[in-house]
Design goal:
176 residues, mainly alpha, 8 helices
């Protein structure tokens, strides 16, 4: 290691004795030169703090509208909503039991239909907020829940038939 270091130092001409001539004069001139002041970081930090405070103020003042629940309209409507939400969640849990590689595409297709109905439901909620308590909108919301539940029940029946094809023949013979 020492040999390589000695070899490097002997092969390279390093100026280790004195700086170039005029070095001290250049250094003193640079010291005497007035330094130009750029943008003051103090003012920049104050401005950033003000922007943050304004952002926090508007962030805390803005509260998004809460979605209208059926219970806001009438207590029995709240019961209806609770019934459908619980039934839909139950069906979704049951359908997940059937999920495998063979049923994946069927389940995903049905869930896409459910998502589309959920988007329609969100539009009904907006309409209800805008137009008020209208019977037509409320009926459309209930029908939307019914359609979602029907899709899930049909899907579960289909998955059951796919799981047990022997039962399908028995049911077919009984209906004839």
């Amino acid at each position: 290691m020492e040999d390589k270091l000695k070899e490097f130092l002997s092969n390279n001409d390093l100026d280790i004795f004195e700086p170039h001539s005029g070095h001290e004069d250049r250094f003193l001139r640079k010291l005497e030169k007035p330094q130009s002041k750029g943008v003051s970081f103090k003012w920049l930090s104050v401005a950033a703090s003000v922007v943050l405070l304004i952002g926090f103020y508007f962030g805390t003042m803005y509260q998004p509208k809460q979605e209208i629940n059926f219970s806001d309209i009438a207590p029995e409507m709240g019961e209806t909503q609770t019934f459908f939400v619980n039934a839909i969640n139950h069906e979704l849990r049951e359908i997940e039991k059937y999920r495998n590689l063979d049923t994946e595409s069927i389940i995903e297709e049905a869930l896409d239909d459910i998502e589309e109905l959920e988007e329609h439901y969100k539009n009904y909620v907006k309409d209800l907020e805008f137009k008020g308590n209208e019977e037509q909108i409320i009926q459309a919301m209930v029908t939307n829940y019914q359609q979602r539940l029907k899709i899930l029940q049909s899907l579960q029946a289909l998955l059951e038939r796919l799981k047990n094809p022997s039962n399908q023949n028995i049911e077919f013979n009984e209906t004839i």
